[in-house]
Design a protein that fits this description.
Chain A: Residues 21-440 form the DUF112 domain. The complex is a heterodimer. The termini of chain A are far apart. The mean pLDDT of chain A is 87. The longest helix of chain A has 34 residues, at 107-140. Chain A has one domain (2-492). Chain A is globular. By secondary structure, chain A is mainly α. In chain A, helix 4 (58-83) packs across helix 6 and helix 20 (390-409) crosses helix 21. Chain A has helices at residues 2-15, 18-36, 42-53, 58-83, 92-103, 107-140, 145-157, 159-162, 167-180, 207-222, 225-232, 245-250, 252-267, 272-287, 299-315, 318-323, 329-340, 349-352, 354-383, 390-409, 412-431, 435-459, 470-501, and strands at residues 184-185, 192-193. By secondary structure, chain B is α/β, with parallel strands linked by helices. Chain B folds into two domains: 2-131 and 250-319, D-Maltodextrin-Binding Protein, domain 2 (3-Layer(aba) Sandwich); 134-243, Periplasmic binding protein-like II (D-Maltodextrin-Binding Protein, domain 2). In chain B, 40% of the residues lie in helices and 19% in strands. Chain B has helices spanning 12-21, 27-32, 50-64, 83-90, 104-111, 147-151, 165-177, 189-197, 208-216, 263-277, 280-290, 299-319; strands at 39-43, 72-76, 98-101, 122-131, 134-138, 156-160, 182-186, 203-206, 220-225, 251-258, 293-297. Chain B has a six-stranded mixed sheet with strand order 2-1-3-10-4-11, sandwiched between helices. Chain B has a three-stranded antiparallel sheet with strand order 8-5-9. Chains A and B meet through helix 3, helix 17 and helix 22 of A and helix 3, helix 4, strand 7, helix 8 and helix 9 of B.
Chain lengths: 502, 324
């Protein structure tokens, strides 16, 4: 343990060399903007920067790419709060309360909480990464298709918490999302599904295309500029542009649980940061004394998912550093980066390249501190976006969003698809269907499908294995409790109430 | 020939430079000195993957050895299981300033139908290396040799995608050895390694580069190699052919151009690729680095190889019921 801290201190010292500092700052700022740009997430960000930074020396290149990764986790929350569009998939849950806060005029406070949560989540994730990487890695590989199925069942059982006022509408949205998740080449047998006769849909529907349509464009279609401007203008106060420490401290519990759960789910193969944010949000809402506040601008609703997605990004690096295998789409590109600079990722990286690994870890600590400073300084400027009249703001946002979507695959088809999802989102909004369950269906559905089908291919169709894994059984039971929690709680209350009335 | 005069926006600068150097040279004479425009290497996959690393290494070796008078630009066009990238390359018919790498999806995606192209829509230029597959098990496994596969029951092998080299090889294995190994497709090579380490899969196929680190760390045990010759770094591991099984399938690192490019361009690139394949820089930066087998194929031999590869995939996809 002590030895680890010694190595880490050496790493931080090594990472303080001017070249690496510049690389970290460069990567973090690029990541911040890429994360904030709807359409481009951390995977695209790392991929865009990879050919550029290969010219740096090896360690600086990876430090810069790491900066893009965690920088984008900070940036994703910014767009979610200010525009109500998740900048990347891990920021979807932040939209719910973050955007509600911004609409209420508290953009500064929401951004402050998001920054603090990102930092704390990041720090917890980093400390766990640096101290327990090898131990956690061997636990993570225990999660095979059976266990991943159970994790996804558990995550989906939480949708009932997130569905808004009408659980049936939430469920229908989820089903639509699950169906959209089946578009593309079948992951197990390879035939195209619902491809509309076009190769554009072979890789499935990109999260950001759906998110931009459902959240961003739908909201804009719904705004009647002429009438909105007079009445909906929120009063502008300088105070609302600044982060507010007291509100941050009040969320300590959500910050803690968000960081830990985010990290654990982030380590699991293929589960990713988005599932982590969803689980922490649901847990925070379940634990709250007054869950009604969630969804209407609760500070805790921003704190929990933002802590989770930052912690998850470090969790997903564990399989990469400890086993030499990618834990997420972004770490897969990072791993390619290691190969390009001439490093051989593998289970021996800690032994064969200790200087490299510890310097990179050191650079992560420095990068996180730098990001807090940068984002706090930017907060007043960013928060003032919330006070710009829609007539000026929306054309700019539409241009940025269209550019972001187009740049994923250089495809006009994708832009048209986002516009179509905007129409669907508008209809859903008018009918009172929440968009979040639909998005979650699209992200989690494919992981669930792969889990179930990989298991069944492996056992020749015998489903009994699902109940032979202790991890899976515990998660299935937890899912049942989550689903029936409202009924159970009622029962407990009745039990308690009875002696009192007697 | 007409296409050689077409100046794309990207090469406009290069064109101007050429004009500046030789303003009085007639246009026809300039057209004869191919290449006069920057070359775009289209990668039908994202940054950081195998085909991307190949492209960037080729571009670097060409630059270091000054084999081209113009610049080579690597352009990633991912999406649609390769369809987006190869459609893009195919749309530059007759334009010898575009080329692209050949991956598995180059053959398999068009076989699924509905594409405007297939492998015959491209002009083969040459191949630079090939990569065999090693069949491995978790080092804690009871399977010590290939023969143990026959007695073991209900084995699972990983594959990266449903229609992939790993699936093709596993079907060959079942046919040759009479085994009933089930193929479980995953989305990436790393996921498959994780599943083998965690005991969720019994076997996997991997390129030497993927597998050597795991083998050296004592996490995986190699069983056999899918090529006629053994791997330099693993001299004790037998090959399938020497054990008497007809399993010989390697991944070709090949480069193609759009259809209808002039014969001079093909001859020019055969020369460039031959110099790359035989250079020390290539050996160091690619072959030794990723433990691949040295190889050079010219246009005609690559054409033959592509035909054979495509028919292997077609046969497998028919067996899987993906094609009629």
């Amino acid at each position: 343990m002590l030895e680890t801290w010694g190595l880490l201190l050496n790493g931080i010292a090594a990472a303080s060399s001017p070249t690496i500092l510049i690389a970290v700052a460069f990567g973090a700022v690029v990541g911040l903007f890429i994360g904030a740009l709807p359409g481009l997430g951390p995977t695209a960000g790392v991929a865009i920067l990879l050919p550029l930074v290969i010219g740096f020396d090896g360690t600086a290149a990876v430090a810069a790419l790491g900066g893009v990764y965690y920088g984008s986790q900070y940036g994703g929350g910014v767009t979610a709060i200010l525009l109500g569009i998740p900048g990347d998939s891990a920021a979807t849950m932040t939209v719910i309360d973050g955007y509600a806060l911004a609409k209420r005029g508290e953009a500064g406070a929401a951004l402050g909480i998001s920054i603090a949560a990102s930092f704390i989540g990041g720090l917890v994730g980093l400390i766990l990464l640096t101290t327990f990487a090898t131990t956690i890695a061997s636990a993570a590989i225990a999660f095979g298709p059976v266990e991943m199925t159970a994790v996804m069942v558990f995550a989906l059982s939480l949708v009932s918490v997130l569905g808004g006022k009408d659980p049936i509408k939430g469920l229908l949205g989820l089903c639509l999302g699950l169906w959209l998740g089946t578009v593309g080449l079948d992951p197990i047998v390879g035939i195209p599904r619902f491809d509309l006769g076009s190769a554009h849909l072979f890789d499935g529907i990109e999260f950001s295309i759906l998110a931009v349509g459902l959240f961003g464009l739908a909201e804009m279609y719904n705004t009647h500029l002429g009438e909105a401007e007079g009445e909906n203008q929120i009063r502008f106060r300088m105070r609302d542009l600044l982060p507010q420490p007291r509100k941050i401290i009040r969320c300590w519990r959500e910050l803690g649980t968000g960081s830990v759960i985010g990290f654990i789910v982030g380590v699991l193969p293929g589960a990713g940061a988005t599932a982590a944010t969803m689980i922490t949000y649901a847990v925070a809402k379940r634990m709250a004394k007054d869950p009604e506040r969630f969804g209407n601008g609760a500070y805790e609703g921003v704190a929990a998912p933002e802590a989770a997605n930052n912690a998850a990004s470090y969790g997903s690096m564990i399989p990469m550093f400890a086993l030499g295998i990618p834990g997420s789409g972004t770490t897969a590109v990072l791993l390619g980066g290691l190969l390009m600079i001439g490093l051989q990722p593998g289970p021996m990286l800690f032994q064969t390249q200790p200087d490299f690994v510890w310097t990179i870890f050191g650079s992560f600590y420095i990068g996180n501190l730098a990001l807090v400073a940068i984002t706090i300084l930017l907060t007043p400027l960013l928060a003032s976006c919330a006070f710009v009249k829609p007539g000026y703001l929306f054309p700019a946002v539409i241009a940025i969003v269209a550019f972001g979507i187009y740049s994923i695959n250089y495809s006009m088809f994708d832009v048209m698809l986002a516009m179509a999802f905007g129409v669907i989102g508008y209809v859903m909004m008018k009918l009172g269907y929440p968009p979040v369950p639909l998005i979650l269906g699209l992200i989690l559905g494919p992981i669930l499908e792969r889990g179930i089908r990989r298991t069944l291919v492996g056992t020749n169709g015998d489903p009994s294995v699902f109940f032979q894994s202790p991890i899976a059984v515990v998660l299935f039971l937890a899912s049942a409790v989550m689903l029936f929690w409202p009924l159970i709680r009622k029962q407990i209350r009745n039990q308690r109430a009875r002696p009192a009335t007697n | 020939m007409v296409n050689e005069f077409k100046i794309s926006r990207r090469s406009f600068g290069a064109g101007l430079a050429a004009l500046g150097i030789a303003p009085l040279v007639p246009r026809l004479a300039r057209a004869a000195t191919y290449p006069d425009k920057n070359i775009t290497y289209v990668v039908a996959a994202g940054v950081g993957g195998g085909s991307d690393i190949l492209a960037r290494t080729v571009a670097r070796v060409i630059e270091d050895k000054k084999l081209l008078p113009v610049t080579m630009i690597v352009e990633n066009r991912p999406g649609g299981s390769g369809a987006i990238g190869y459609n893009y390359l195919n749309s530059h018919e007759g334009d010898a300033s575009y080329l692209g790498g050949v991956g598995v999806s180059f053959f398999t995606t068009p076989l699924l139908g509905k594409m405007r192209y297939n492998y015959k829509s491209f002009t083969p230029l040459g191949a630079l290396a090939r990569s065999p597959y090693i069949l491995v098990v978790n080092s804690g496994s009871d399977i010590k040799s290939l023969d143990d596969l026959k007695s073991a029951s209900s084995l699972r092998v990983g594959s990266v995608g449903a229609v992939a080299d790993e699936a093709l090889l596993s079907h060959l294995l079942n046919k040759e050895m009479g085994t009933q190994i089930r193929v479980v497709p995953y989305d990436g090579g790393g996921e498959v390694i994780g599943a083998v380490l965690g005991g969720h899969l019994d076997l996997m196929w991997g390129n030497p580069n993927e597998m050597l680190e795991q083998v050296r760390a004592g996490k995986m045990r190699p069983l056999a190699v899918s090529a006629p010759e053994r791997i330099k770094e693993l001299p004790e591991v037998p090959t399938f052919p020497e054990l008497g099984y007809d399993i010989n399938h390697t991944q070709l690192r090949a480069i193609v151009m759009p259809a209808g490019v002039p014969a001079e361009a093909v001859a020019y690139w055969e020369g460039v690729l031959k110099s790359v394949a035989e250079s020390d820089e290539w050996r160091e930066a690619y072959l030794d680095r990723f433990n691949e087998i040295p190889l050079y194929l010219d246009s005609a031999s690559l054409a033959k190889e592509m035909e054979a590869t495509s028919s292997r995939y077609e046969a497998m996809m028919k067996e899987l019921g993906l094609l009629k």
